[in-house]
Amino acid sequence: MQQDPHAMAPSPKVSVQLPRDLCYKEHVPSEWWYYNGHLSDSDRRLTFHVAFFRQRTDSVRVGRWLPLRLFGTHYWCAHFSLMDLQTGESWFTHRRSLWWHGRAERDRFKVRLGRWSIEGDCASQRLRIGPTNMHLDLHLSIRKSASLHGDQGRFHKHPEQECFYFSFSKIDAHGFLKLNDKELPVQGTCWMDREYGSVTMAQTLRGWDWFCLQLDDGRELLIYVLRSRQPSNLPPYYASLIDQGGKAQFIPIGGCNVIVESQWTNPATRNTYPSKWRIELPSLAMVLQVQPLLQEHEIDTRGSTNVLFWEGPVAVSGTEEGQCIQGRGFVELVGYDSEHRIGTFDFACQNMPLLGLAQNQLANLCTVCRGIQAVPRRVSTRSAKHPEGGT
């Protein structure tokens, strides 16, 4: 069997252990908790994604000279997007904070940024975003054990970086969504990713295309296509097939081809993204067509993680050994923004503008003192307007 080159070299260091490694890790440079999901009520189909990020501020400076750690040891931010597949509308809002608005616990899984939070364990979790006029409250029931990527969760994106990566690829969800003062009961399925360690993007990395695909037969497919600025010893992608029990089967090099079949350009930003894919998996005798459900869904995170990227739901169809298969999933495309490349994002993280820091923290303080949450602006995917900036 071919060795997974994204797995780290053997060492005495402990690999992923659960539920311990769901929890906040104070001393690692950066970490995140990511969720996406497909939801429905009686007559609407909705999708969402939520991500919580934390980065240590040890090496970050404000205005190039003032250490950011004087304002706080950790930089927190979070994203939330919601899409209505019936109307073609989408909403996005994000948060960031340096001080007491961001909190997490070491001995149990609980992460909070203002009134946004996630808590639970490896069996069940609760995700709450709000309250605003766009409030999501979900109870999550995890139906598969964690899939550990690389070598028992130890994963390489760059030769000089050490990180840990695992997924809960099948989660049942139920709860409610409050949208424009109307409360909707919803249910559906979700995916969770957890990553921590040295996960800031190297200057040599141009970006990535990330696919999480949930097949109707109970399996899932994870594909990470890494786009480098210069030659690398690591292969350009990582791919694994997750079986019904949650075990990730590494797909050997040469066993996965991702072919872009069409593109979409946002007229507002002039950024061009892949918009339809053919995925060939010869070792599995599988060919998949992956099609966005909402094509126009570029997300603007200037004010939190400072990049523009595409993320959204996709439909999956194809064949395996001549038999038809279907599914759905999510795709994330990073590094296609002509003005805010990954390198610019890293540079922004290391040198935060003083005025931007002061403005953001003042807005956060006013929000908490008044008990008011920023109202996310509705973004019509047909007009491709910019999402609202963060607070």
From TrEMBL:
What InterPro entries does this protein map onto?
AttH-like_dom_sf, AttH_dom
Describe the location of the AttH domain by residue ranges: 31-198
Q: Pfam families under this entry?
A: CrtC, Lipocalin_9
Protein name as it appears in the record: Hydroxyneurosporene synthase (CrtC)
Species this protein is from: Novipirellula artificiosorum
